[in-house]
Amino acid sequence: MTRQAEGTVTGLIAGYYDVQTSEGLIRTRARGVFRQKKQKPAVGDHVEIQIDDQGMSYLVKILPRLNRIGRPAVANVSHVLLVISAVQPDFSVALLDRFLNFFSWQKVQVTIYLSKGDLLKNSDKLGQIKEILAYYEKIGYPVYDDATKLAADLPNLIAAGQIWTLAGQSGAGKSTLLNKLKKDANQATGEISQVLNRGKHTTRQVQLFKMGQGFLADTPGFSSIDLTPIKLNELCNYFIEFKKASSKCKFRGCQHLKEPACEVKRLLAAGEILPARYDDYLAMRTEISEGRLPEYLK
């Protein structure tokens, strides 16, 4: 006699899947049928497991996915908590825009967290960074720079069944932040390579941690984001302030380049669109049209 149960994959350890169900956490293996179909369950997948009278269980079905992001992947991501460092590695608007547009393309909302601001305390550089981030907050991205406030707010922000994932370049401080958000996470943290100005990967697998009514995932750092699969004429839609302004452009499908009566260009000239955002838009268009990553990301 067997019975079925549904749950969420919260971890993968040595070929076993940890599945959080209404009955509790069940460690199980996947049926061989997934190998035959060249499928692999991912952390975050909503799955069906089969349990027999002896308590033996197998993962037998992957339920429809919302999305699948990253390597190793997290499935069904509702929201990204994007960690961007002030220093070590240095703050980069270009990198921030790459992440934001990648996740916009994936139809995933983003909250920005600025890490390591304490290393620039009372400096002009920190003030400049916060001024830039105030623009992102104005166009619709929630921004935090205080881990204590974020830890207090986050459980109320994650709705039932939602999966939020930490993301950001290697060494930005994702695991350090997770340790503050989830005291029992005990994630490894690493030193920054001063030579490469790039962090060592301290997280090598994905794990979901219970947070609020949903889950928070820690993932390995992204060393680069590949935007080349995005369709060139759709890129402008992933800059949220461009998309909002485009309804007032003279031409439908305006690419905000040399078209007359372009609202995005008008706002740019009026100082209401951050010039660096528009420069990044042009750089991303070149990258997509050439079908290759820019040299600085290789």
Automatic annotation (TrEMBL):
Q: Which Pfam families match?
A: RsgA_GTPase, RsgA_N
State its Enzyme Commission number(s).
3.6.1.-
- Domain (CP-type G): give its ranges: 66-225
Q: Which PROSITE patterns match?
A: ENGC_GTPASE, G_CP
Q: EngC GTPase domain location, by residue?
A: 75-223
Enumerate the SUPFAM superfamilies for this protein: Nucleic acid-binding proteins, P-loop containing nucleoside triphosphate hydrolases
Gene3D superfamilies registered for this protein in UniProt: Nucleic acid-binding proteins (2.40.50.140), P-loop containing nucleotide triphosphate hydrolases (3.40.50.300), Probable gtpase engc, domain 3 (1.10.40.50)
Q: A single GO BP annotation from the record? A: ribosomal small subunit biogenesis
The keyword tRNA processing is annotated on this UniProt entry:
no
Cross-referenced HAMAP family: GTPase_RsgA
Q: What does this protein do?
A: One of several proteins that assist in the late maturation steps of the functional core of the 30S ribosomal subunit. Helps release RbfA from mature subunits. May play a role in the assembly of ribosomal proteins into the subunit. Circularly permuted GTPase that catalyzes slow GTP hydrolysis, GTPase activity is stimulated by the 30S ribosomal subunit.
What is the name listed in the Swiss-Prot or TrEMBL entry for this protein?
A: Small ribosomal subunit biogenesis GTPase RsgA
* Encoding gene, per UniProt annotation: rsgA
